[in-house]
Amino acid sequence: MEAISITKPSFSEKFKKGINWRLGITLFTGKILGLLVVLAAMKMLPGMIATPASAGETYTAHETMLMNTANTIWTLVAAFLVFGMQAGFVMLEAGFARQRETVNVLMECIFDTCLCGLLFWAIGYAFMFSPGSGDGFGFIGKHWFFLQGAPDTYLTTGIPVIAHWIFQYAFADTCSTIVSGAMIGRTSFRGDILYSIGITGFIYPIIGNWAWGPDGFLANMGSTGHFLPSLGNGFRDFAGSTVVHTIGGIASLAGALVLGPRLGRIFKRDGGGPMSGHNMTLGAVGTFILWFGWYGFNPGSTLSAVDMQGIGRVATNTTLAACAGGMVAMYLALWFGETKGKFDLAMTCNGVLGGLVAITCPCYWVDPLGAVILGGVAGLVVYYGVQLLEYLRIDDPIGAVPVHGFAGIWGTISLGLFAPGKYGATGPTGADNSAPVAGLFYGGGTSVLKAQVIGTFTIAIAVFIITFIMMYLIKLLPNPWGLRVEKHIEEGGLDLLEHGSLAYPTT
Hints:
This protein is an all-alpha fold. It has a single domain, classed as Orthogonal Bundle (Ammonium transporter fold), CATH 1.10.3430.10. The protein contains 15 helices and no strands. Helix 7 packs parallel to helix 13 and helix 11 packs antiparallel against helix 12. The radius of gyration is 30 Å and the shape is globular. The relative contact order is 0.13.
């Protein structure tokens, strides 16, 4: 058996091992000290070079470019979704109309879309979104006509003006299309051209400037040196319950009043009832297309792909409000409607749309519970709004007035009730919840509620007066430029006598 020899380390080897051991301790200690220095710098430097609020918003030029690019892509995708709502409007309005006026509905919607694009490029965007007086008391924008002289990006959003334009064009197109729905079956096409010019080119953008313009007097309301400074809150409308839908719905009311009902329309108090739409399949599919487009309308209004929580919350609130609105309207029609004991498809569709309209203003500032409640109330508003128009003998074939006008007012006011005091403002780098919005039911008092009531009724009253005068003046024009077609055209059908074609030819 071979002996195992044990060699003792020499003095030099022991010295080297000691050096290595001490070197390891030294390196480890140095790393710990370095880490502590880095942590101390992370804690101290932001306070030395910036305030705590802005330190988190300091980004490199490359990071800012990436965020602005993502936000622009998001805004454009949302714009395309909102534009797709035109297909929904066409199908909804055509389905709720009579067969003999289907082509007229289709032609009006396509024409309004083309006209709106040109007018919003030439004057509408300038009136609505360019600077005006500059003192916070603005009533109308005064720059950027034909998009000339506009800056590269819109205000502080980081979104190119040209991208912001197409997003807002889709909104303007929505407003103009709403109006035609209440005036189906008896409006001359030339009259439609005239009132569309007035609404798209002037009424919508100028009045919209009050709430969404950079120095609109309602947007700046409640701050020092501006309109009603003691109020303490400005008017808020995140995605357009008032700016888009109430303007469209109240303009529809003015048009329906000036026109009068369709020939042969007998109201419930006179022993009749609403005229049935000719194709409810189109109406139902149109409702779903509009619902889908609303996911561009509301979440897209963040103009920020970076605000992930905000986008998710808005999309969820939009969904829940639509569901609640449809359910409430359906059951009200089942229990109390003309078809008592029957499930009314048209009323259910309008209840869904009413919920969508109502949530459009408060979608960013309420939580899901609030969305369900205010959406359900919107279904009630739509149902009883339809009954009110029927009692007043106002002929609104698709329910544009209760869905867009009345539900829009309710949704705007509901912000002052259901805002939970959690959410503040969206922005290009994410949410800023340092100044959250709180409504009456969440301990916020009545300040926000008052601002919402003042804002929505100021806009609604102004729209009604101006549009009623405009519609009445167009009605006085001699045919074929008057607002209403001649009796023989209405009786014979607008499709054949105004457009020379039928939607459903027999051969």
